[in-house]
């Protein structure tokens, strides 16, 4: 019945396709976004609120974090701010418990919070190395781990973590940052393998330079300089937080139900991955 070139074969494939269940973010699903007071995190939270998700907004900056949660509520969904320092394991487990206490469940974790202090490799203080690895990498892992039991119980979940082009190319004056972001890719592939059978997809995003405070404040450049630099990008501009938020929505959605363990670059064509 499934012989080559037979119309039965085409029918069997079509029939099989119609039976595949493609899960993705649904209205009312709960999403945790770390570092959502500003930048990418804020844009991601607002985008997911517009998709109908309930939002747990995490950050260390309380007033702007509260403001992001209020902006999400203004869209018409439930949202709450939770103070959480991603470099502190106790903070992460308390914030995760508070999220589950409020919302009872979680579907998506967006590990977005990140820091990028600068120092030449030969002089990086151990404290800077440890703090950068703690916030960018260990905190992301602990957050995924904190919500894993709930996702296992639900048989569904979706984890997206922010890496960086620096993970691929290296980062002059940021060896600690580059290593933390390379670790995000290794973490993503490992969790994707271990948790696929639990219905959990795990992916990473590799952004290029974008218009947020991180490259402006930490890199000491003006917005005008950054935009000027964008003229050298194949697509003619640097990234915008809404570019990232759009990709997060795609990766959480049912159209990418067969995508896991991937690191997707969003950079206007600066780095073209195989
Ligand atoms: N903007 C870029 O050009 C770019 C490029 C590549 C990767 N990234 C990555 O994207 C992510 C978001 O960056 P962004 O550009 O929006 O940066 P941003 O500095 O504008 O925002 C980062 C957010 O994380 C929060 N944060 C910082 N330390 C924290 C901590 N210890 N605990 C909890 N929250 C904390 C900040 O308060 C802020 O709200 C980061 O992981 C960053 O490394 C950014």
CATH C-level class:
Alpha Beta
Rg over alpha carbons: 20 Å
**Class derived from helix and strand content:** alpha/beta
Instruction: Report the strand count.
Output: 7
Within the CATH hierarchy, at the fold level, what is the topology? Rossmann fold
Low-confidence stretches: none
- CATH architecture level-2 label: 3-Layer(aba) Sandwich
**Bound chemical compounds:** nicotinamide-adenine-dinucleotide
Intertermini distance = 38 Å
- Main sheet? 7 strands, parallel
Full CATH superfamily name: NAD(P)-binding Rossmann-like Domain
Mean of residue pLDDT values: 96
What proportion strand? 5-15%
Describe the structure.
- With 274 residues, the protein is of the alpha/beta class.
- It has one domain: NAD(P)-binding Rossmann-like Domain (Rossmann fold), CATH 3.40.50.
- Helix content is 49%, strand content 14%.
- The chain contains 10 helices and 7 strands.
- The protein has a 7-stranded parallel β-sheet, sandwiched between helices.
- Strand 2, helix 3 and strand 3 form a beta-alpha-beta unit.
- Nicotinamide-adenine-dinucleotide binds next to helix 2 and helix 8.
Which features characterize this protein?
alpha/beta, binds nicotinamide-adenine-dinucleotide, 274 residues, Rossmann fold, 10 helices
Concise account of the structure shown:
With 274 residues, the chain is an alpha/beta fold. The protein has ten helices and seven strands.
Topology:
Layout: H1 7-19, E1 30-34, H2 39-50, E2 54-59, H3 62-75, E3 79-83, H4 89-103, E4 108-111, H5 126-154, E5 157-162, H6 166-169, H7 175-195, E6 200-207, H8 213-218, H9 223-230, H10 241-252, E7 263-266
The structure holds nicotinamide-adenine-dinucleotide.
């Amino acid at each position: 019945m499934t012989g080559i070139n037979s119309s039965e074969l085409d029918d069997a494939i079509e029939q099989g396709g119609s039976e595949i269940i493609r899960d993705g973010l649904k209205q009312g699903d709960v999403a945790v976004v770390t570092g959502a007071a500003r930048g990418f995190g804020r844009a991601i939270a607002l985008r997911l609120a517009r998709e109908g998700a309930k939002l747990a907004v995490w950050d260390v900056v309380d007033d702007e974090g509260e403001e992001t949660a209020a902006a999400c509520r203004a869209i018409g969904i439930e949202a709450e701010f939770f103070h959480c320092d991603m470099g502190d394991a106790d903070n992460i487990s308390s914030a995760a418990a508070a999220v589950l206490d409020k919302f009872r469940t979680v579907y998506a974790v967006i590990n977005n919070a990140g820091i990028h202090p600068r120092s030449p490799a030969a002089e990086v203080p151990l404290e800077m190395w440890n703090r950068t690895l703690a916030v960018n990498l260990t905190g992301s892992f602990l957050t995924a781990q904190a919500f894993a039991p709930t996702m296992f119980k639900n048989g569904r979940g979706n984890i997206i973590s922010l890496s960086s082009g620096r993970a691929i190319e290296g980062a002059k004056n940021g060896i600690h940052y580059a290593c933390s972001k390379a670790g995000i890719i290794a973490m993503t592939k490992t969790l994707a393998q271990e948790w696929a059978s639990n219905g959990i997809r795990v992916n990473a995003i590799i952004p290029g330079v974008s218009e947020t405070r991180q490259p402006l404040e930490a890199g000491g450049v003006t917005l005008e300089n950054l935009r000027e630099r964008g003229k050298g990008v194949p697509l003619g501009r640097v990234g915008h937080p809404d570019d990232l938020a759009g990709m997060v929505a795609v990766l959480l959605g049912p159209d990418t139900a067969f995508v896991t363990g991937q690191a997707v670059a969003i950079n206007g064509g600066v780095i073209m991955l195989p």
